């Protein structure tokens, strides 16, 4: 089974998004797509006079921002992706974590930083896998927005890389799962300026060294943390690659960066 995540820079480009969705729609067997959209939420926020505030790649979500991200992720982005997949013959169903209680979460506790209405997922055991399996059984492809809920009536904002990791882990109980993080670069790069400097393989030891040397930073840190969390909890393989390489990858060819534990 494929669990694929696409980030904001792909969603923001109509050409890249369409090319990716054509390939995704053709993936064989049951599959699930998680989308981000941080960049689009920030741009829409600016139009509404809401200034984005990010700390370590995570958005500070005040009450106004929660309304914004609920509209942008759960509405605009999710439904546009679903409609495009329908046009490609992929019977997609758009979901947030509240729908079918797929991803219950709790408000992130305030430690040094108050992230506001940010949701932490307990773990893969709280995911409503039964509901996801029911969707697969009737041939539906879930398209999941980066929103969770607190089970008390409030939506919460959760990083899309985390959602992909936790859903892949939960589905790994019953399936052999390949988790693919698609973004706008060819993979994890040794040199951010050089698209041809893809690191083909990263294990836990190498990740530590890359972090210490500053080669891996910003949004790549939570992505890799989430990749290792998934591998530790039963996900078969994690790949970080260009959204344009997904077809190549599922055909068994190398693309991007393979993440393994050892
Ligand atoms: N070594 C690296 N290789 C590639 N990207 C890196 C690296 N270190 C940091 N990054 C940054 O991480 C970003 C990807 O994380 P993020 O912005 O969360 O992506 P997404 O589009 O998937 O949401 C890249 O756009 C890049 O700016
Ligand atoms: C809590 C938190 O930070 N949530 C993210 C969810 C969107 C996301 O992860 O989008 P990308 O994958 O496109 O970055 C945010 O609001 O930016």
TrEMBL record:
Taken from the record, one Pfam family name reads: AA_kinase
Domain spans labelled Aspartate/glutamate/uridylate kinase: 2-242
**According to the UniProt entry, what is the EC number of this protein?**
2.7.2.8
Localization, per the record, is: Cytoplasm
Residues that bind substrate, according to the entry?
Answer: 37-38, 59, 157
State the pathway, as annotated in the record. Amino-acid biosynthesis; L-arginine biosynthesis; N(2)-acetyl-L-ornithine from L-glutamate: step 2/4
Q: Which reaction does it catalyse?
A: N-acetyl-L-glutamate + ATP = N-acetyl-L-glutamyl 5-phosphate + ADP
Q: What's the chief localization of this chain?
A: cytoplasm
Q: Which GO terms describe its biological process?
A: L-arginine biosynthetic process via ornithine
Q: Which GO terms describe its cellular component?
A: cytoplasm
| GO MF entry, a single one | acetylglutamate kinase activity
- Record keywords, A-Z: Amino-acid biosynthesis, Arginine biosynthesis, ATP-binding, Cytoplasm, Kinase, Nucleotide-binding, Transferase
InterPro entries in UniProt: AceGlu_kinase-like_sf, AcgluKinase_fam, ArgB, Asp/Glu/Uridylate_kinase
Site feature Transition state stabilizer, where: 5, 223
This protein's source sits in the domain of life called Bacteria
* Family, similarity comment: Belongs to the acetylglutamate kinase family. ArgB subfamily.
**Reported function:** Catalyzes the ATP-dependent phosphorylation of N-acetyl-L-glutamate.
Which PANTHER family would you find in this protein's record? N-ACETYLGLUTAMATE SYNTHASE (PTHR23342), N-ACETYLGLUTAMATE SYNTHASE, MITOCHONDRIAL (PTHR23342:SF0)
The name this protein carries in UniProt is Acetylglutamate kinase
Species this chain originates from: Pontibacter korlensis
Q: Which gene encodes it?
A: argB
């Amino acid at each position: 089974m494929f669990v694929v995540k696409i980030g904001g820079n792909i969603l923001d480009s109509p050409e890249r998004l369409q090319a990716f969705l054509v390939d995704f729609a053709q993936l064989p067997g049951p599959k699930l797509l998680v989308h981000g959209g941080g960049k689009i939420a920030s741009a829409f926020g600016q139009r509404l006079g809401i200034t984005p505030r990010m700390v370590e790649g995570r958005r500070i979500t005040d009450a106004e921002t929660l309304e914004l991200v609920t509209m942008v992720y759960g509405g605009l982005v999710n439904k546009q992706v679903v409609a495009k997949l329908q046009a490609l013959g992929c019977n997609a169903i758009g979901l947030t974590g509240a729908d079918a209680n797929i991803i219950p979460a709790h408000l992130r506790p305030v430690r040094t930083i108050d992230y506001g209405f940010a949701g932490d997922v307990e773990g893969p055991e709280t995911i409503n896998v039964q509901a996801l399996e029911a969707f697969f059984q009737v041939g539906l492809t879930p398209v999941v927005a980066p929103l969770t809920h607190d089970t008390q009536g409030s939506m919460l904002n959760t990083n899309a890389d985390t959602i992909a990791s936790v859903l892949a882990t939960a589905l790994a109980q019953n399936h052999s799962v390949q988790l693919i993080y698609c973004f706008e670069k060819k993979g994890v790069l040794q040199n951010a300026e050089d698209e041809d400097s893809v690191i083909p393989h990263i294990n836990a030891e190498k990740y530590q060294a890359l972090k210490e040397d500053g080669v891996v930073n910003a949004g790549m840190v939570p992505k890799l943390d989430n990749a290792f969390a998934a591998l530790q909890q039963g996900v078969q393989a994690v790949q970080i690659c260009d959204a344009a390489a997904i077809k190549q990858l599922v055909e068994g060819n190398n693309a991007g960066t393979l993440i393994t534990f050892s």
